[in-house]
Amino acid sequence: MRSVRSLASVLVLIPVLARAAETPAGRWEGAIQLPSGPLAVVVNLEPEGGSWKGTMDIPAQGGIGLRLSPLTVEGTAVRFTIVGAPGEATFEGTLAGDELRGSLAQGSPYPFHLHREGEGDPASGAAGRWAGTIDIPGMSLPVTIVLEKAAESWKGSADIQGKTGLPLEEISVDGAAVRFVMVGPPGKPAFDGRLEGGEIRGTFLQRPAFPMNLTRKGEAARLVRPQEPKPPFPYSAEEVAYANGDVKLAGTLTLPPGAGPFPAVLLISGSGAQNRDEELLGHRPFAVIADYLTRAGIAVLRVDDRGIGGSTGDVMSSTTEDFAGDALAGVRFLTAHPKIDPRRVGLLGHSEGAVVAPLAASRSKDVAFVVMLAGSAVPGYDLLRRQGELLARAAGLPEAEVAGYLEMQKKALDLIRDEKDEAVFQAKLKELAKVQAEKLSEEEKKALGSDPQAAIEGVLKQQTTPWWRAFVAYDPRTALRKVTVPVLALNGTLDLQVDAEQNLPEIEKALKEAGNPDVTVRRFPGLNHLFQTAKTGTVAEYGQIEETVSPEVLDAVTRWIVERFGKPAPK
Fold it and tell me: Using one digit for the tens of pLDDT, what is the confidence trace for 95-112?
């Protein structure tokens, strides 16, 4: 599962606003206080007749001018919902002079603080070369930024993750406020910060957000990723696109040298919106896998997820069924390619992608094999229960807190899975939120704003997106029992997101029930969810580890495919 669609829900980090003193009208800036650091946001509010209207900018999600409705101001109380945001993301807060404090309920309730945008000299000292770090949990990611004033506008570039000269767009220097968007990394991440005391401090916004601090001193250290593919490459690469209904899918096809036809594999990423390289914390697992396989004579197609890069659509409003359709569209593209052998096209999925792959294979005779990396074989309900327990314990939470969290998680998952009547569901949701609010300490209630119950309701509603409800209910064994092509299933013993002992036996059992004659199941000691050699398996470790994918796993996958499909199948 995407790191971290763990514990209770998928957090689509969306912040909010309001206005103080006599009227909340105006421009506000501030941040939501997330566990990973502050997430910056800009909000504009203005009266319209006897009511209010407003917009929000969330650069981390590419959201500019998001409409706020309904938006109410009653005395010092401000409340609004972000239109189009999953889970009815709702803010509720209180105006106090030039500050607005409250909480946003979406995924989890987070306190946040906004202040009126100050006036300043636009000719600030932002020009020049800046070096610093993005403070990701467990590591600091080095970055260098160059800003240059050009006539009445700004231009700039960034060096990050081994890439140099990445252009900056939408650069704004307004008083002490410094903002820009970075072109190149997935999701067009943005920076929102302030120039104070010779430093630029702020937030790097890229799902989730992380603190980013820059100074004019020092050189940024290089992030070490020794497996990152480097040219010249002994193979060719094509930029490709194809469709699944109204959804356009864009990706890269790497082809071994020669005329072919070659065996081919389509890579399917884990949950959440990810780019074609499955990029995370400076690692590009799918780029590493594609490079390794293509050098071994296997063509590889890797594709941007819905709504990312060159692909259209939206991940959170889609389901596993939709992703299986996307995968089969990729299979159709490969089987029609002149350099691909249509009888040797397979699927390789990681995490949720390893759930999607068997589902797609069960529906098409064009899929010749399946590779499951950290795939699950129990219903999403059971997977999330075990995942929550493992992650909570690994985080070092006291047993009482672990038990309390698991109790709350179970009640929420029970409701999401079992209640089909929408009216009854909403009533039970309110009751569950009320019970949980009553258990909060005074400090916790204060952090959630004036209506803790409403904040908790927002958290629970975020878990009712189409993806979430479908995932909780889906049992991968139904599809696995129909898969008769060769299957390779691998998992690491330090995987805390997809427990090997919970899932590998079920994968093997379901495939045997299908009468599948070619099933290989392997556990790799000491490997985490990303198949890195790890110490604890925690998510915080992912970025600290230099290794992107264990060479042992790369070799195992390659050998398994080549042994079965390295030579053309008999006609």
Answer: 776 677 777 765 556 566
